[in-house]
Specification:
Helix content: 10-25%
Strand order of the largest sheet: 1-2-4-5-6-3
Number of strands: 6
Strand content: 35-45%
CATH topology: Thiol Ester Dehydrase, Chain A
Radius of gyration: 14 Å
Order of helices and strands: HEEHEEEE
CATH superfamily: Hotdog Thioesterase
Distance between the termini: 26 Å
CATH architecture: Roll
Length: 143
C-alpha cells in the first residue's frame, strides 16, 4: 500500500492534477491497483457539467496513465528526485464504457506489456464497483 505522501515521490503531479489517491497493490515489473476517490468538491465538476457532474474522460485516461507511471518508476527503483520523468506518449484502443460521477471510487489497473529503450507499454483499465468504466493501451516514455 502507498498513501499520497509516498505517491508524490513517484509522480511530479500536484493538486489539482494529482489523480491517484492511494495504491492498493503493486508488483514491480508486473501490475498496480490504485484508486481515485471522486468528490463533488473537485474543481473540474464546476464546469463539467454543473447540473450533471461527470469526471472528464481525458482526466480518467490521465489517472490511468499516472497509475502506470507509478508502476514504471517503482519497477525501476526510481523516484522523481532522481531526475527522471514519465511522459504520456500515446494511447490506443481507448474506450469509455461508463461515466464516473461524484461519490464514485475509481479503481485504476495497469499491467506492464513491454519495456524497450525507455518506452513502456501498459494495458490500463478503470472500474467503478466492479464495472468497467474505461480501458486503453498506453505508452509512457522515461526521460
Amino acid at each position: 500500500m502507498m498513501d499520497v505522501v509516498e505517491i508524490k515521490q513517484y509522480l511530479p503531479h500536484r493538486y489539482p492534477f494529482l489523480l491517484v489517491d492511494r495504491v492498493l497493490e503493486i508488483t514491480a515489473g508486473e501490475s498496480i491497483v490504485a484508486c481515485k476517490n471522486l468528490s463533488v468538491n473537485e474543481p473540474f465538476f464546476n464546469g463539467h457539467f454543473p447540473e450533471q457532474p461527470v469526471f472528464p474522460g481525458v482526466l480518467l485516461l490521465e489517472a490511468m496513465a499516472q497509475a502506470a507511471g507509478i508502476l514504471g518508476f517503482y519497477s525501476q527503483g526510481k523516484t522523481t528526485a532522481d531526475g527522471s520523468v514519465y511522459y504520456f506518449a500515446g494511447a490506443d484502443d481507448v474506450r469509455f464504457k461508463r461515466t464516473c460521477v461524484p461519490g464514485d471510487q475509481v479503481i485504476l489497473h495497469a499491467r506492464v506489456v513491454s519495456c524497450r529503450r525507455g518506452i513502456w507499454k501498459f494495458d490500463v483499465r478503470a472500474e467503478v464497483a466492479g464495472e468497467l468504466a474505461a480501458s486503453a493501451s498506453i505508452l509512457c516514455a522515461d526521460r
